[in-house]
Design brief:
7 helices; mainly alpha
């Protein structure tokens, strides 16, 4: 089941990257970041039993992975992060909030609205925490991996 979700999330993120004109040479890595972020989310959802906390952890992990790939591939982090964050965005929560608002069920609207705001805030904090790590770490790790890959 988790392998199927990885593959489907890879394709969805890849499609999103194509839609937003990511460089063709980076499409595979864009899809990979989204799939990895989703798997991290699923794993931590089992541990935390809290959607916002799982989103925070997944977004932090995703940001770190995107920064590492960007350092290795010599492209801006946003190429990978914008497409990679796609699976974690609370689209269903936004839809449910809007639906219950239109249906005039303010109790459900408030419930889904607060859940969506928590998830959105967790995503923002995960990105902030991921960018709080010094860039020199990613540059050094990128150089180390590049040297290991080239056999030097």
């Amino acid at each position: 089941m988790i392998l199927a979700q990885f593959f489907i999330c890879f394709l969805a993120t890849l499609s999103f990257a194509i839609l937003f004109a990511a460089p063709k040479s980076e499409l595979f890595f864009c899809g990979l970041t989204g799939a990895i972020g989703w798997i991290v989310y699923l794993i931590f959802l089992q541990f935390y039993d809290s959607i916002p906390l799982a989103n925070l952890t997944a977004t932090f992990s995703l940001t770190v992975i995107c920064r590492l790939i960007a350092s290795l591939r010599k492209h801006p982090v946003t190429v990978y992060l914008i497409s990679g964050i796609f699976p974690l965005v609370p689209g269903a929560g936004i839809y449910d909030t809007s639906y219950y608002f239109i249906m005039n069920d303010m109790g459900q609207c408030s419930h889904y609205g607060m859940q969506t705001i928590k998830v959105a805030g967790a995503i923002v904090l995960g990105i902030i925490f991921g960018f709080a790590l010094p860039q020199i770490w990613f540059n050094a790790l990128g150089q180390l991996l590049h040297a290991a890959r080239s056999g030097n």
